[in-house]
Amino acid sequence: MTMNPMNTMKGVKPSIVMEQNKHTFTKSENKIYEYIRDHTQQVLYHSLTELSEASGAAEATVLRFFRKLGFKGFQDFKFLLAQENLLTAQKDSHETIIKKVRNNMVQAINESSEIISLKDLQAGIDMINQSDDVVIFGIGSSGIAGLDMQNRLMRIGKHASVVTDSHFQIMRASCMKENSIVIAISHTGSTKDIVDAVEIAKENKAKVIALTSYVKSPLTRFADLVLLSSAKDSPLDSGSLVSKISQLYLIDLLCTGLAMQNFENAKSINMKTSKNLSSKLY
Which of 10, 14, 107, 128 is surrounded by the most beta carbons within 10 Å? Predict the structure, then answer.
């Protein structure tokens, strides 16, 4: 008998739940089960779209699979799967943790620099440069990255607004026009509020630049341009500094490119800003 989706899943081990219910699986559900069983670590870093493609099952089938097992959805399943895996780890010393964090951050920058396309980067710079209505969408830790981007753009004379509230994002997207540019920052590309706002922006013919770590996600379906970073968090590391560092790296590339493209104006604005802000220091 399958589990009731309304049951609490606290303390449940996803691997055991799957084993207990595998006799009820359809042919498509068996594909999902076998892929998860054989690629447990990779699944922790997959988006729903990536799991669907890797297992050969439709996204709707994948969602039904997890709900059939009693989980709210894929993210709920991943969170509990990560907890289950964590029980067999956690023996690291503080020294090992320090090295791990350092290595992960360095790796995120190195891998992001390898996958970034110069052509796509230049296209993003041009899109932002040519628009008088640049809006940054981000929620949670991605919203923090968005605020940093706004700060960087203001310092080089490029006006941009950042919206981190989901209701305000919907309202802002509703009044966009053809010349509007949305810079949508979402590590997973699966944040529903961001995707909903971006879809409305696209209906109003705005252009969308997605800053994400997942090439295939609900967000990238609406993006005119996708700029990828390499860092992928497990559910227990969501919003980690490693993922933010990779986002800030992409933002730095875009802002530096804009400054170089408008060097004299950017230099003048930056000097004025620094001079006027100096009075705020003792």
Answer: 14
Claim to verify: residue 44 and residue 119 sit in the same structural domain: no
Q: Per-residue pLDDT for 135 more than 50? A: yes
- Mean model confidence pLDDT for the chain: 87
d(CA 14, CA 81): 6
Residue 104 in domain: yes
The pLDDT tens digits of the residues spanning 204-260 come to 999 999 999 888 889 999 999 999 987 655 555 555 677 788 899 999 999 999 999
Residues with Cβ < 8 Å from 156, sequence gap 6 or more?
Answer: 255, 258, 259, 262, 265, 266, 269, 270
Show the domain range for 216: 97-280
Q: How far apart are CA 246 and CA 232, in angstroms?
A: 10
Q: Name the token pair of 173.
A: 């997207």
Q: Which residues contact 56 (CB under 8 A, 6 or more apart)?
A: 31, 35
The string of pLDDT tens digits covering residues 62-73 is 999 999 999 998
Average pLDDT over residues 193-207: 97
Q: How many domains does the chain have?
A: 2
**CATH code for the domain in which residue 190 is found:** 3.40.50.10490
161 and 230 fall within a common domain: yes
Task: Give residue for tokens 């560092």.
Answer: 245
